[in-house]
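Usage

Read records sequentially. Each one opens with the input sequence:
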Amino acid sequence: MKMLAKYLFSGLLVASLPLCASEAEINEAISAASKHYKAGELSQAIAQLDYASTLIRQEKGEQVKQAFPPAPAGWQAEEAQSEVAASAMFGGGITASRNYYNDNQSIEMQLMMDSPMLQAFSMMLSNPSMIAMSGGKLVKIQGLQAVQKLEGDRLELQFVTPAGAMVTVSGDNAAQSTMLALANAIDLKKL
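and closes with the structure output:
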């Protein structure tokens, strides 16, 4: 029951967080965690550290949105979005996305980083046999090995960046050249 209460408390903290935390808020949470730890209040120390790490992830999530490329000629782009999961939920992580569209087609670009779930995909990407068995084909994006999968009229490209972020670009197969251009235009240095 205590574990459930801790996870619910952590979830409530995440839901109530401001969009961008100040350095003072982060330092205050770390200091509170240290005080709780020294007092032997380990659950409270964990909750404060989870809070601080979530604030830092939120800050990183806002920065990551700058990595998305602008809309190509003839296309429009929605505002980039980012979400943060606390470490108590799914091991933590940051996701960000941006949608691109024109009159006939749509493309979604997603980023996932700082999540333990990425290890499985990284292992699969390093094994061409597994990619072939799953119906994918290997392509290069920004010099990195990527998986391209076609299911019906939907095309999906996935690759892991040197910083450990997984990039997924999905959309109409007819927009394949635009999808490849967007994937090759993402600013990897901002991840």
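Summary fields computed downstream for this record:
- Residues 42-64 form the longest helix (23 residues).
- Residues 1-19 have pLDDT under 50 and may be disordered.
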